[in-house]
Amino acid sequence: MGSRIRGFVRRPLPATNALFLLVVLLSLLVLLADFSRASARLVHRSCCSPTQLSTLASLSAKQNLTVTGSTLSPFMVPRVSGTANNTLVQQHIISTFTALDWHVDQDPFEDNTPIGRIKFNNIIVTKNINAARKLVLAAHFDSKYFKDQEFIGATDSAVPCAILVDIATTLNPYLDTYLDPSLTIQMIFFDGEEAFKTWTLTDSLYGSRHLAEKWAATYVSGYRPSSSGIGNLSGSSSHSILSTIDVLVLLDLLGSRASPGGKPAQIYNTHPETAHHWQSLVEIQQSLAKSSVVSAGLVGQMTETGDNGYLMASSGWQSNHAIDDDHRPFQQRGVPIVHIIPQQFPTVWHTVDDNADAIDPEIVHDFALIFRVFVAQYLGLNVF
User: On the CB side of 281, how many CA atoms lie within 13 Å of its CA?
Assistant: First the structure.
């Protein structure tokens, strides 16, 4: 007979009960670890001192993001889908991320367009292909087709693509030593965003429509994060690749002023369901301005309360200003979206003037730094 404790007889636990308790304990440990990682990321999101921001600002030379710089210049060519230049830009993206030791996926396909059947190729690059959750940044690398003229598309979207490359290049040493295996950064370079004639549901967003449909039908097993961002175990359940995306941040029409010599374009949040991410970006912009590591122009135009920057506070959300773009096929399938695009398009939009002369290098560098800090904070990189 076992020993008595407070009038009860202690007996060995049945094997099934012991196994159940072991499973519960292991599950609690996994949840605790995930909670700790999530908490650490939240701490990082509000921990940036001027010294820490200066460290992040020092990771790249401003020259790299000028129109002749090593990061932006490879995109400053006509890049119409299905052309030789488009293929050259693809090769540049692939070679750049291969050298950084990222996993590179290609999504080649053909589709009918108003000017005939065209070959497209989305490029997806991921730092840790085994991570269950992904922060996704995206931009389109094609440029619009014009029959009788060459169109560069500097803001649309050479600059956004260069910003993505800059983020990967500057943060890669920290990503190499990143300790959270459950979360990573992924970037999508969409092909075929532009309409060949008139923007319609079928003549536009060729690449994003194809990839979203493909990923919705491609399933992964195992871990699935909860809506709170803290992981849970899903046992043997399967989920589509889309379910692994924490949020998709799409960049478009960046790098110029609203009009030549005018004020920088201001951008409003059009997706209230991701207002917390938008607010993080607004606060980062404010912190960078207070630390004077962004351009004097951005510092000068912002108020003491942090308003009037490029990214407007969430209180300025205007639902009637939502803009169709590569995010739509993903949003329609439930992916959370942050859309970084001016509601008032730059005056050079879809004209031959969307070229090197339209680009303000200070604005480009400011946006690159804002998103560099955003990624570092979101992932909780050991930059601080």
Answer: 25
Cis-peptide into 157, omega within 30 deg: yes
* Per-residue pLDDT reduced to its tens digit, 316-332: 555 556 799 999 999 99
The full set of domains in the chain, from first to last, is 63-255+322-355+368-379 (3.40.630.10)
Residues designated catalytic: 193, 252
Tens digits of residue pLDDT in 56-82? 999 999 999 999 999 999 999 999 999
Residues 6 or more apart from 158 whose CB is under 8 A from it?
Answer: 72, 75, 76, 79, 143, 152, 255
List helix spans (H) across the chain: 15-44, 50-57, 84-99, 159-176, 206-216, 275-290, 296-301, 328-331, 361-379
Q: Is the dihedral of CA 299, 301, 307, 310 positive or negative?
A: negative
* C-beta neighbour count of 33 within 10 angstroms: 13
Closest among 109, 135, 103 to 122, alpha carbons compared? 109
